Amino acid sequence: MDELDITPRYKLGDFVRCVHIYYNYYYYYTYHSDEPSEGDFYHGIILDIDYACWDGYEEDYEIIYVIYCTDGVKRFFSEDEVDKLS
Questions:
Q1: pLDDT score for 26
Q2: Cβ contact 85:16 at 8 Å
Q3: Chain Cα centroid distance, residue 81
Q4: Which of 23, 27, 47, 83 has the fewest CB atoms found within 10 Å of its own CB?
Q5: How far apart are CA 63 and CA 20, in angstroms?
Q6: Cα–Cα distance between 9 and 14 in angstroms, integer?
Q7: DSSP bridge pairs for 77
Q8: How far apart (Å, rounded) are the C-alpha atoms in residues 62 and 12?
Q9: How far apart (Å, rounded) are the C-alpha atoms in residues 46 and 84?
Q10: Residues in the chain, pLDDT under 50
Q11: With helix as H, strand as E and coil as C, how does the chain read?
Q12: pTM for the full predicted model
């Protein structure tokens, strides 16, 4: 892979608050509020930063953060699902 021209907003070791953003096509049979409740959030530290390409076009790479959450589980979040706390 060639050098990517995108820069992560956050860095390794940052303490962050994360929430998975589900769009309407995931909720065909269930009700989903547009605003997440406090119980929907995860808190953790960024362990790794990776890149994903969903549609095969090299210009459409997205930043993916590997977060070690406070409940002891590693989870993956896209950049728009993460907010820095400290």
A1: 47
A2: yes
A3: 4
A4: 23
A5: 14
A6: 11
A7: 65
A8: 17
A9: 10
A10: 25-30, 32
A11: CCCCCCCCCCCCCCEEEECCCCCHHHCCCCCCCCCCCHHHCEEEEEEEEEEEECCCCHHHEEEEEEEEECCCCEEEEEHHHEEECC
A12: 0.74
Tokens 């940052």 sit on residue? 14
> Letter for the amino acid at 11?
K
* Number of residues in the chain: 86
Amino acid at 53: C
Six-digit token pair at 28? 């065909």
Joined together, the tokens standing for residue 20 give: 């998975």
Tokens of 43: 């808190």
User: 42 is written with which tokens?
Assistant: 């995860």
